[in-house]
Specification:
The structure holds 2 protein chains of 2 kinds. Chain A is α/β, with parallel strands linked by helices. Chain A has 17 helices and 13 strands. Chain A has helices at 26-35, 43-47, 54-62, 66-76, 80-86, 93-96, 99-102, 110-123, 148-159, 176-179, 188-200, 217-223, 252-261, 280-291, 312-320, 367-370, 410-427, and strands at 140-144, 163-168, 204-207, 226-229, 249-251, 272-276, 296-300, 324-326, 331-337, 340-346, 351-353, 356-359, 398-400. In chain A, 52% of the residues are buried. Classes of the chains: A alpha/beta, B alpha/beta. Chain A: This is FAD-dependent oxidoreductase.
């Protein structure tokens, strides 16, 4: 992998969690690629939010043209690497594979093949050279936040010749790909290699710079020809019950970040952990705790399993790893004893003993921040309001995309970034190019 | 259970399955294990003056995830001393008197042929096979295919063998000729008691694009080899059939070339073979494959009500005619089963880009007056499930059959008779009637 400009600390807990789907060796990738039927008008392409030409990239793997395969992927989706590893493929491309209707053999492992192709070119350093790049055009673009949406938008515009700067308030870029992805899907090092790939396209990444504090939004807009706001979501939502601020209680995103990035953080002494929530973050957290060896991991959900918003296939895996689900569990209070967490008391009188509690019930919206950009509106739910096909806002120099507008997947953020890049290129009257990567995939 | 035993030019064999002269028949130990596994006969790895082999010497073609679809070798004849081979032949025949051992031979001079033939017969060989087929290495020394490609030379050398032999003589033919009937007839005219074919096809199996050396790589050089395996079966089947239906070929044929299963064997026998020989499939999977070959052929014969494998011999030959005798009015049309279709649309793109574009997607209209028996069901499934089920316009379909070959789902696309009572009429019939002019040619 390419050297990292943003080194990650040593002794991180996530390092103890193994990759659940290790990368293929070349022969195995070819064997899996050979299973692909190479459908015409393939349903997997339709199912991909970015519209990667999946049968084409798989055929290129089968012929040994791995660089061509990676180019096919990265053109339609610059974040093809993280998407290969974190996409809920069962609900997207793999779920649409015609093998599902056949019931003869399993659908093609599209995500693993995509990872194989992209990891190959990230590892040998050839990735950036695969994509057509225009000469510098003098246009200055700022992307606020350095998560998936901004990374995609920035990368595509850098390829069009723009002078793009990413502004990130944290010390390291990458957004949730670095801080929030379950390590058995992708660890922070892997996520960082993708960030470095985007940087290598010619993007400047400024970390530790907070827009609204260090630079006023209006000034940022004034100083650039276009601004993309892809700041994602805010802090963990809270239950608002007694004891929540006490010892041993964390927010979901907060805890995952500690587990992934905090040097020396350990779960020593944690015997019983509860996770409150029923979404995909909650499922990630229970699986992480189970994989890290916590003997008793309970998931507390306020309704029944049938109503859980998290993916069923992920919940099944969690069960296999020993996680138990407590249904109709509405927390009333975190009970502490001797300054330590002892239990979660439920509204129906039950009590679940625990020495670690993680509240994964969603994240706050950043509507207030987004509205600080002149002319940019938000919805009543606190989401940034942008044109769904372009991310354009009421301010002709400002675009929005990613989770800040209500998306929830890395792949939808990547598509938002690509759509905004196309829209910005049009607004800046950049010359159209036949081999412009951002024109690949779905509109 | 049907009788699988065959009589090949007087050689009695418990079944028609023989190992071809090749690496699996290199030693007596191998052949005895093969007989234990069920093989009826074995043609010994070609005897002659011992040679020196190269490393490496095999090359292979994989298609998709199927390994060794085609196989190539540059191995020469036996590299073991003649007396060792003869001693082992004697031992095998002593232990397996009812199994067939045929000595494959390749030497140069008349005296050499005389002497080696006598030695082999003395050792107990049931027959001889003259290796006039090897297309690599040995042919550079004036043997193998160098003999098989020259009918006059073939006739002379085969004549020597026939003269000196007291056991049946098979001539193994090379496919590296324009018309297999020419060497076949020459061998029969020389008095050969049987023919075996095909030997391997002269080939270069591939190129190592990093080293820029063809396969199989020997240091930094390579040479052409002999091609065999499943990929050559159609070529072998044609050559066997050409001889099988030629009235000048009055001797039994041992079929060789890509035979891996009882079904392959049954096809060769139906096209006129008395026995079959197998090599590549054994190199791939071992001697054990013969168990299913025996079992499968036996069950097939029982199902068809045939009491003996001899009843199968040549059964399909009468149907093999010239193109000019085919029925031009016979018509089939493709039918896609909407129930089985998984919506890969490989048939759609194949028909559109290669054939007549008679396969249509659910959304495409039907030309008025045309027939499309499955269209309604295809549209219904496409609408209900989103699966891209295509349908066939029977008035556009020419019955070419391509779609049924590209379809990955067994039984999904079938070819249905759409002749609709038209009488038989061949091209030769048209010539006879003077109705063979097709408008639109050079002269209008």
């Amino acid at each position: 992998m390419t050297p990292q400009s943003h080194a990650l600390p040593a002794q991180r807990l996530e390092s103890g969690i193994a990759d659940s789907k290790p990368n293929y060796i070349p022969g195995d990738a070819v064997a899996e690629a050979n299973r692909c039927l190479y459908c015409h008008d393939a349903p997997c392409i339709t199912a991909c939010p970015t519209g990667i030409d999946i049968p084409t990239f798989i055929r290129k793997i089968s012929t040994g043209n791995v660089k061509g395969s990676a180019r096919t992927i990265l053109s339609a989706n610059l974040l093809g690497y993280s998407c290969a590893r974190v996409c809920p493929v069962e609900a997207l491309c793999v779920g649409a594979c015609v093998y599902n209707a056949w019931h003869r053999s399993p659908p093609i492992s599209i995500g693993r093949l995509q990872r194989f192709a992209v990891e190959t070119v990230l590892s040998d350093g050839s990735a950036a050279g695969l994509l057509s790049k225009a000469a510098p055009n003098g246009k200055k673009v700022a992307c606020v936040g350095a998560g998936p949406a901004s990374l995609a938008c920035a990368g595509y515009l850098a390829l069009e010749g723009c002078d793009v700067t990413l502004y990130e308030k944290r010390e390291s870029p990458g957004g949730l790909n670095v801080t929030g992805v379950a390590p058995y899907k992708m660890n922070a090092e892997s996520a960082m290699t993708e960030v470095e790939f985007i940087r290598s396209l010619g993007v400047t990444i400024k970390t530790g710079v907070e827009i609204g504090k260090d630079i006023a939004p209006a000034k940022l807009v004034d100083d650039h020809d276009a601004v993309f706001v892809g700041v994602g979501l805010g802090a963990d939502s809270k239950l608002g019950i007694p004891g929540e601020d006490g010892a041993g209680v964390f927010g979901g995103v907060e805890w995952v970040e500690k587990m992934k990035l905090e040097s020396g953080y350990s779960l020593e002494g944690v015997r019983r952990a509860v996770v409150i929530g029923g979404g995909n973050t909650a499922i990630d957290v229970v699986r992480e705790l189970a994989k890290l060896g916590v003997p008793d991991v309970a998931m507390l959900y306020r309704r029944t399993e049938a109503e859980m918003p998290g993916y069923k296939h992920e919940m099944e895996l969690a069960r296999k790893e020993g996680v138990r689900l407590v249904e109709k569990a509405v927390p009333k209070q975190f009970v502490h004893a001797d300054g330590k967490l002892a239990a979660v008391a439920l509204a129906d009188g039950r009590e679940v003993a625990c020495d670690l509690a993680i509240v994964a019930i969603g994240q706050g919206k950043l509507g207030a921040f987004v509205s600080s950009f002149p002319g940019v509106a938000t919805t009543d739910k606190g989401l940034a309001l942008g044109d769904p096909m372009s991310g354009a806002t009421g301010n002709p120099k400002v675009w929005v995309g990613g989770d800040v507008t209500g998306g929830e997947l890395v792949v939808t953020a990547a598509q938002d970034g690509k759509r905004a890049a196309r829209s910005i290129a049009a607004a800046l009257a950049l010359p159209s190019r036949e081999d412009s990567p951002m024109q690949a995939g779905h509109r | 259970m049907a009788d699988l035993s065959v009589n090949f030019a007087g050689i009695q064999s418990p079944n028609p399955f023989w190992l071809a002269s090749a690496p699996p028949t290199n030693t007596g130990d191998q052949i005895m294990r093969a007989f234990d596994a069920g093989w009826g006969g074995a043609v010994w790895k070609t005897l002659g003056d011992p040679i020196v082999d190269t490393s490496s010497r095999f090359g292979s073609i994989d298609v998709g995830n199927s390994r060794m679809v085609g196989f190539n070798n540059i191995e020469l004849i036996t590299d073991r001393p003649l007396d060792v081979n003869l001693r082992e032949i004697r031992e095998v025949k002593r232990k397996y008197p009812k199994h067939v051992v045929i000595a494959s031979l390749m030497v140069e001079s008349k005296e050499d042929w005389r002497d080696i033939i006598k030695m082999c017969i003395d050792a107990g060989a049931d027959g001889l096979e003259l290796n006039f087929g090897c297309p690599h290495g040995m042919c550079e020394r004036g043997m193998g295919s160098a003999v098989g490609q020259e009918p006059e030379v073939l006739k002379i050398v085969a004549g020597w063998a026939v003269e000196y032999s007291t056991v049946p003589v098979l001539v193994k033919l090379t496919p590296n000729v324009g018309d297999i009937r020419v060497p076949g007839v020459a061998a029969v005219e020389a008095g050969a008691h049987g023919l075996s074919l095909i030997n391997t096809i002269k080939s270069i199996v591939g190129v190592d694009l990093d080293k820029m050396v063809p396969y199989p790589v020997v240091g930094n050089r390579a040479t052409n080899g002999g091609y065999c395996g499943p990929a050559v079966k159609p070529i072998a089947l044609h050559m066997v059939s050409s001889l099988g239906r030629d009235p000048r070929i009055t001797v039994p044929i041992s079929g060789i070339g890509g035979i891996a299963t009882w079904r392959d064997a049954a096809e060769f026998i139906a096209m006129g073979c008395t026995s079959v020989q197998v090599c590549t499939a054994v190199m791939h999977y071992g001697f054990r494959i013969v168990e299913d070959m025996i079992d499968g052929l036996s069950n097939f014969l029982d199902e068809k009500g045939m009491k003996s494998v001899n009843e199968l011999r040549g059964k399909a030959l009468p149907a093999y005619t010239e193109w000019g005798d085919l029925d031009l009015n016979y018509k089939v049309a493709a039918q896609i089963d909407p129930e089985k279709c998984i919506g890969c649309d490989l048939c759609y793109v194949a028909c559109r880009d290669t054939s007549v574009h008679c396969i249509h997607t659910a959304g495409e209209p039907l030309i008025e007056g045309h027939r499309a028996p499955t269209r309604d069901k295809a549209i219904a499934k496409a609408t209900a499930t989103g699966v891209h089920v295509p349908w066939v316009d029977w008035d556009e379909c020419t019955g070419c059959n391509l779609c049924s070959h590209v379809c990955p789902v067994p039984g999904c696309i079938t070819m249905v008779d759409d002749t609709r009572g038209k009488p038989f009429e061949s091209w030769n019939d048209r010539i006879a009637k003077g109705t063979n002019k097709v408008p639109g040619g050079l002269r209008g």
